[in-house]
Amino acid sequence: MTDTGGTGGARASGARVIRVVVAEDQSAVRAGLVLILGSAPDIEVVGEAADGEQAVELARALRPDLVLMDVQMPKLDGVSATRQVVTEGLADVLVLTTFDLDEYVFGALRAGAAGFLLKNTDARDLIEAVRTVARGEGLIAPAVTRRLIAEFAAPRRPEPRVDPGVVDRLTPREREVLGALGSGLSNAEIAVRLDMAEATVKTHVSKVLGKLELRSRVQAAVLAQELGI
Questions:
Q1: CA-based, 20 to 30 A from 203: which of 24, 28, 149, 220?
Q2: Whether residue 12 has pLDDT greater than 60
């Protein structure tokens, strides 16, 4: 477990810096992730973890903005670690996986992960994914998340169907926002579609998540898909 300290704030000349913990059990891969993220002026890697237990410990100690979490790790797997980090409100979690669709990813979704990213993502997209999740927008990499949503909501899966009445607690506008989330849209894209300010979209998204007792935008998107909204 490594606390890397931090010079990112000075590097960013006073601008907001996204503080990240990188959790990856393969040292070479972890070093590469740290190198890539460290190249961005607005991102600071404040800690490195080689297993899930260390990831949770660092999140508790450092309270980063985001944990970049490998899904398959020793001692405590990434799904269980994600659940602890999210449940305790320590940070947002961006999950790394080798596979675009697997049971680990579904488990991470249920645990409240804010986003999912494939390990073969290029450096530029990795940096942008961290920025996106840090802004509170969990639906990154549309090609991945839309496949994830479709697979998770497929009738052949054993999960119970959602009671359609659950959305009765939403206002008509909030239902529209939920439908837009189901299409994999970002806040900016929702603002354009629904002709509202982006700040207003953020407010509506927060209300939707709160009323439906959901932990992430991805969970909201899955719900929208399941209900056909």
A1: 149
A2: no
